[in-house]
Write a structure and sequence with these properties.
Helices cover about 55% and strands about 5% of the residues. It is mainly alpha-helical. The chain has two domains: about 375 residues, no CATH class; about 150 residues, no CATH class. The protein has a five-stranded mixed β-sheet with strand order 2-1-3-5-4, sandwiched between helices. Strand 4 and strand 5 form a beta hairpin. It is globular, with a radius of gyration of 25 Å.
Length: about 550
């Protein structure tokens, strides 16, 4: 059988990888056009943009204007390079991130062709990955995860066993891609190390030369960790901390080792990998498709392609050698990110979603007569997930809820600038950064800020004890409060999420104004999110000037 360098829509005309990348990139820019000028959001504003801004201005790989978390510097380098070429703006940032999202989707197409070898399967896997709400939202957000996912997926394209045995696994290319992925986000190193462990285990059952080949592959995969180790050594030399500041290490690793916390997180991670944001639609349809017998491939027979005896007329599927590695990767990522990461953010699992969709789409293709209808149903479910919030709590960055949050904050800060110029503002993160860092795109001139953690009853009571610290309050929803009797956590689940995963309940603006003794000046709501401005008639002391 002849195999093309990329995937082909017509057998006689292979499509250049550069054309595929350009087409994907233009489609992403068009589909994200309304989001490209939004100012920075949440962890963008809290770490990634300040870190890149410091490198852009000062050439420092370690941020100085925010606490260092020991995150590797590759995203900062890419963003600073783009700003150097085209100027500093959210538009340049988001288009740059879209370019890496397109690079990742191009890798998904290459991976599908190597593992299945069918153009339509590759097309639908790429399209569904692009439409999956978590990937769609992350495609224009300047988090390290999208950079890391792009390199990780290229590494997987070179590391996983191809359907055509004449296509070798390019261990050195996989190691290079995985090394770049780890220099974008340190947790990406878990994937090559997982594959290395799998190859070592497999080598004990392999004969002679096959065993040596597996050892060599494992060595390359382990070697991909060396640049990350060098970065941590540099960070330790410059800061005295190996894995970031002590609070960051405690929150993301040391505080997560309780068995109860691990089990709760593991359940969340399994749901993230099988059901979150309508992912249950392709997963359940793929499981149902397994009840059907594999179908014969008449196109393959007519083309006269050579196949192994017994498989000649059966439609292609992901080979067992690759499928077993994919399942192992999914399981190990669920375990790994149940221990690491204080917040259960789905973007940590970003490279896993294309693998799930590839297995689902290839199952449709192999077993269902009108399989592209199932792909269309999946696409429709994902499109709904982009715009319609699920009936349970979720991170706004998992769909376009993040854009609503940004626009609410823009409106609230505009009202603050118009009605209370020069005020000292009581607020919580991320608005505290939005008001004090003009480079984030919300204010022209920074405000003095009195910071609290959130707008729970305990934090508002604490703020009420120091009324002289602020003259205005900018309050907003920090969590999506979704009341659905079908998706209640129960008393035990709620208590565990409050203890381990930061679940809390903000007071409403009227109640905050009443407890703080202020007047509600302005308020705006959209779906389950809100923001409000509260004014106080009293003399304040700038917190920055207090001794």
């Amino acid at each position: 059988m002849r195999w093309r360098s990329y995937f082909e829509l017509r057998r006689e005309r292979p499509i250049s990888g550069w054309i595929v990348f350009a087409a994907i990139f233009l489609a992403l820019v068009a589909s994200h056009a309304s989001l490209l000028r939004l100012p920075y959001y949440w962890d963008e504003a809290g770490y990634y943009i300040p870190a890149a801004w410091d490198f852009f201005r000062l050439g420092s790989l370690i941020p100085v204007s925010t606490l260092t978390n020991a995150h590797p510097p590759l995203p900062s380098v890419f963003l600073a390079f783009a700003w150097k070429l085209f100027g500093y703006s959210p538009l340049v940032t988001r288009v740059t991130v879209l370019a890496f999202a397109a690079l990742g989707l191009a890798a998904v197409g290459r991976l599908a062709m190597r593992l299945v070898g069918v153009a339509t399967v590759a097309f639908w896997t790429v399209a569904l990955t692009a439409l999956y709400p978590v990937w769609f939202a992350q495609s224009s957000l300047a988090h390290a995860d999208i950079f890391s996912a792009a390199f990780t997926l290229w590494g997987l394209a070179y590391a996983l066993p191809a359907r055509d045995r004449l296509l070798p696994r390019m261990s050195w290319a996989a190691a290079l891609c995985f090394a770049l992925a780890a220099l974008a986000k340190e947790t990406a190193i878990a994937i090559p190390l997982t594959l290395a462990a799998y190859s070592l285990f497999e080598s004990y059952r392999a004969p002679g030369m096959a065993r040596i080949r597996l050892w060599r592959e494992s060595a390359w995969l382990v070697a991909s960790a060396l640049p990350l180790a060098a970065w941590y050594g540099y960070h330790r030399w410059k800061t005295g901390f190996l894995f970031g500041n002590p609070e960051f290490l405690r929150y993301n690793a040391q505080a997560n080792l309780e068995p109860a916390r691990f089990l709760a997180a593991f359940v969340h991670r399994l749901l993230h990998l099988t059901a979150h944001m309508n992912l249950f639609v392709p997963v359940l349809m793929a499981l149902a498709a397994l009840l059907l017998a594999p179908r014969h491939d008449r196109d393959q027979e007519a083309a006269g392609d050579d196949c192994e005896e017994g498989n000649r007329l059966l439609r292609a599927a992901v080979e067992p050698a690759a499928l077993s590695r994919i399942v192992f990767l999914l399981l190990m990522n669920a375990v790994f990110f149940s221990v690491l990461g204080g917040a259960l953010l789905t973007r940590y699992l970003l490279p896993m979603y294309p693998l799930i969709l590839l297995v689902a789409v290839s199952t449709f293709y192999r077993r269902v007569p009108y399989w592209q209808g199932l792909a269309l149903i999946t696409a429709a479910a994902f499109l709904l997930g982009i715009f319609i919030d699920p009936p349970y709590g979720f991170a706004p960055e998992d769909n376009l809820a993040y854009a609503r949050m940004i626009r609410l904050h823009q409106a609230g800060i505009a009202a603050l600038e118009e009605r209370c110029p020069g005020a000292t503002v009581l607020t919580a993160w991320p608005a505290s950064d939005e008001l004090t860092r003009p480079e984030l795109g919300y204010v022209r001139k920074p405000f003095a800020v009195a910071r609290i953690e959130d707008f729970t009853a305990a934090e508002i009571a604490r703020a009420a004890q120091k009324p002289e610290d602020y003259s205005t309050a900018l309050v907003f929803s920090t969590k999506e409060e979704i009341a659905s009797p079908l998706f209640t956590l129960g008393a035990t689940g709620k208590a565990m999420d409050e203890r381990y995963f930061g679940l809390h309940h903000d007071l409403l603006p009227d109640e905050i104004a009443r407890q703080l003794g202020g007047a509600l000046l302005w308020k705006q709501e959209e779906r389950n999110q809100w923001i409000a401005l509260i004014r106080f008639e009293r003399v304040t002391v700038d917190p920055a000037r207090k001794q």
